[in-house]
Amino acid sequence: MAVRRQYSRGEWISSGVFMLVILVAFASCSPxxxxxxxxxxxxxxxxxxxxxxxxxxxxGLSVTAARFSEWPFTVDAGLLKCEAGAVTFEPAGGxxxxxxxxxxxxxxxxxxxxWAEDEDLGYxxxxxxxxVLNKGLSLC
Length: 140
Known about the structure:
4 strands; alpha+beta; 4-stranded antiparallel beta sheet; 3 helices
């Protein structure tokens, strides 16, 4: 018959502390965790400041149709940003639109008003936005 080992109170406490340390470390690294700084200058509290390539004078990356193999928008250029996983696109003089679901979840308006329809596919289908989305995610 196998003998079951009895764990001491100290062993239980140390394993609980270890799990707590792992949990805190994970929470501080995940989007929305305590390791991020809040962005309060544009009314989007809770979003981290964008990192990576920046346009002069503000966060984000200036993009034009010439930078991509297929341009998915009805405007020629704008500012691409990523803050805490929320990828947004802001045309000159326009609002910041949500490029991904994370940005929609934090309140940015849907990109549909400036998202071009794919003339080759028809039926109201839109131009592939994945190249712009991937570029935006690389800014996070």
